[in-house]
């Protein structure tokens, strides 16, 4: 997307990013912070989140918050406690980027085991549901809130070996569509889905080991779309699916 965010266009917003320790999530957290947002870095590994935190602080952007959470294990009560902690510490929530995902490898369903199947559904589908639900009261109170889900082309074109990853992403897209229909009458809240495309990240190396890294776009190439969706220029855009690498 060819979008130029106005300077500081996320100023005073509080935005939660899942999977913020590396890849697209880490880059988005830094991009949101550079635009004035207070970012909440959620991920499994504290040390990775601290690296992102340190970079944001060193750049002089608003002080972030860190919440180490394993999305495969957290239950509704824990997500509710997280939302309460956000309210107690930061007083508001204006956006969620559901970016974390579990992808193990390409393998036939015949050999994907119950732990893998269940784990991918938990991280890629059930956690975004429970987290959105827990944060819903805060989002409804925001003057302009945006929730972004992350999908993949494998959800649209189910192909052999993509197994529970594609299944969970496809179901998450359906969930995003249902949420967006249900909030259709709320003028201050929107929910959309992003398909990042073939982007140079650790997960991409795993899913497409044969691709040449130099042929993949860098993560920065898709940040204009993420900035657009998190800011007020996308107010009223609801229930859409965006392919980040399409012009
Ligand atoms: N890169 C692409 O080409 C591409 C294409 C299509 C879709 N996507 C989607 O874009 C999103 C970001 O992908 P990426 O390429 O940046 O992947 P990535 O580098 O592998 O990052 C995934 C993030 O998810 C986190 N995560 C995984 N399991 C978790 C759990 N149980 N609890 C909390 N966090 C967990 C990881 O945290 P840890 O570091 O702790 O493991 C990591 O920070 C994903 O939803 C992916 O499906 C990417």
UniProtKB/TrEMBL annotation:
InterPro entries associated with the record: NAD(P)-bd_dom_sf, SDR_fam
Classification via Gene3D superfamilies: NAD(P)-binding Rossmann-like Domain (3.40.50.720)
Coiled coil residues, start to end: none
One Gene Ontology term of the molecular function aspect: oxidoreductase activity
Membrane-spanning residues: none
Keywords, in A-Z order: Oxidoreductase
NCBIfam families: PRK08945.1
Family recorded in the similarity comment: Belongs to the short-chain dehydrogenases/reductases (SDR) family.
Protein name as annotated: Oxidoreductase
Organism: Novimethylophilus kurashikiensis
